[in-house]
Amino acid sequence: MALLSEPSTPADDAPSPEDERAKPRSFSTILHELAQDGTRERIQVADLLAAMKDRAFGALIFIFAMPNVLPTPPGTSAILGIPLLFLAAQMALGQTPWLPKLIAGRSMLRSDFAGMVSRASPWIARAERMLKPRLTVLSTPAAERLIGCFCLVLALVLAMPIPLGNMLPALALCVIAFGILERDGLWISLGVAIGIVSLFLVAGVIYAIIKSAIFVLAKLLS
Fold first, then answer.
1. Which of 7, 21, 112, 155 is surrounded by the most beta carbons within 10 Å?
2. What's the CA gap between 21 and 35, in Å, rounded?
3. CA gyration radius, the chain
4. What would the pLDDT profile of 80-97 be if each residue is shown by its tens digit?
């Protein structure tokens, strides 16, 4: 004869429905919701700005920096660097995220956006599993202003036409952006470290280009 068991009680640390509702939606969830929204024919930058609300800085910095992590056609970094300059400057000044209508109104077909989200989702989801609020001193308003200043420097470097000089600054911006999204100070620190390394490497590339130009010029004039 089977014994009746006592009804199991939820563990004390199990998330309650109220906690689940209070937890902010993840970046990947918001991207999927926009991609699957049948009421939209096109997705504008302004839609992302509105959907992310107070986390728009991290989301938009990631969106505009991510394409530069891989080799891109000449001029791409300059085009995508302009919105990054706007966003980083506003973060440094402690302002709410805002973009000019010329940039905020840019859009793409929802089907194209859905394809891009589908390709990026595994990487974004993998990163989100490693993110959690920690070292929150780096996510305070004062710290975010300093991070905004650093992001502004990286955005300036990214916008410069330096051969392969935009990939590491873009990677640094992506890592910092994820840290801002989830208030993860560890990732922000990692992004800053990558950014510092990228600045040294870019400075070395610029120095080599200048030295080569001087050498060639001296040869031509001799």
1. 155
2. 22
3. 22
4. 788 888 889 999 998 888
